[in-house]
Amino acid sequence: MRFNLWLGLALLASVLRGTAGETNPTAASSEPAAMKRQIYQVRGVVQELKPDGKTVRIRHDEIPGYMPAMTMPFEVRDPNDLAGLKVGDTVSFRMVVTDNDGWIEQVKKLTVAAKTGAPTTGPFRLVRDVEPLKVGDPLPDYAFTNQFGQPVSLSQFRGQALAITFLFTRCPYPTFCPLMANNFEKAQQQLLTMRSGPTNWHLLTLSFDPDYDTPARLKAYGEQHGCDPKHWTFATGQLIDITALTEQFGMYFWRDATGGISHNLRTVVVDARGRVRKIIPENKWKPDELVAEIVKAARVKQ
């Protein structure tokens, strides 16, 4: 009996030691997510401070191994990070990037405010004199080349609700071009699986980086996002046409002195009659909102 009692106590002690040494399953499962976080130290010049108190547009230097020099808006999670900043301030900051989000923190002013001019627009390029488009206006016809190297024109989508967004495939920042592609992917999935939903709809993603975004690259990029070619086209074309269309919707892109592309964002919904229904600025919209607009646009009587 003494031996059995001693053996039982020894086994109990062993179990307790093992339990004390186990890793917390919750902590273990969260570790891979933490490992996906990337942090970059960046330097740039403040171009604009948005009224929301948490968004700042910065012309930043190249981030080696991640993206070229660009001018783009960044969000902070703590508004105090932007306290005291002015347009023209040179700043350093940490850029934090995950698979589907990005923000900046620890923003520090390096110099006093200085006068800044307009952003460098890079080499001269020919542009058309175009009028801005507003809700209710007919969509002009432009010709592009799709991901299969085939010609495609905007007029061929007449009779369908058409959603258009703009990006370039080299853009890595998760809340910019990748977000536009991810949102279109989610919208496509919702529309394809919608019961009693419309079938006369199409998504069009236009690249404004035609030198790099060849049909083959656009095809590969589309496949990464589950593109159904029957309902989603990736395309690019002549810069004169791309520039004309983007400027009509209030979107601008340019190359700085280093060759990096800077831009803002626009997403557009055109109804089945070929008239502009919705112009959505920037990146705050959700796939559900886009789907709702597309459904309404598809059901407009021609």
Give a verbal description of the structure:
With 302 residues, the chain is an alpha+beta fold. It folds into 2 domains: 37-109, Beta Barrel (OB fold (Dihydrolipoamide Acetyltransferase, E2P)), CATH 2.40.50.320; 143-298, Glutaredoxin, CATH 3.40.30. The chain is 26% helix and 27% strand. The protein has 6 helices and 14 strands. It has helices at 2-21, 25-35, 177-192, 215-224, 239-248, 287-298, and strands at 38-49, 55-60, 70-75, 90-97, 102-109, 143-146, 151-153, 161-167, 201-207, 232-236, 253-255, 261-263, 266-270, 276-281. A 7-stranded mixed sheet has the order 7-6-10-9-8-13-14, sandwiched between helices. Strand 8, helix 3 (177-192) and strand 9 (201-207) form a beta-alpha-beta unit. Helix 3 (177-192) crosses helix 6 (287-298). The longest helix is centred in the first third of the chain and has 20 residues, at 2-21. The protein is globular and about 60 Å long.
List keywords for this structure.
302 residues; alpha+beta; OB fold (Dihydrolipoamide Acetyltransferase, E2P); Glutaredoxin; 2 domains; seven-stranded mixed β-sheet; five-stranded antiparallel β-sheet; 26% helix; disordered N terminus
Explain the layout of strands and helices.
Layout: H1 2-21, H2 25-35, E1 38-49, E2 55-60, E3 70-75, E4 90-97, E5 102-109, E6 143-146, E7 151-153, E8 161-167, H3 177-192, E9 201-207, H4 215-224, E10 232-236, H5 239-248, E11 253-255, E12 261-263, E13 266-270, E14 276-281, H6 287-298
Parallel strand pairs: 8-9, 9-10
Antiparallel strand pairs: 1-2, 1-4, 2-3, 4-5, 6-7, 6-10, 8-13, 11-12, 13-14
Helix pairs in contact: 3-6
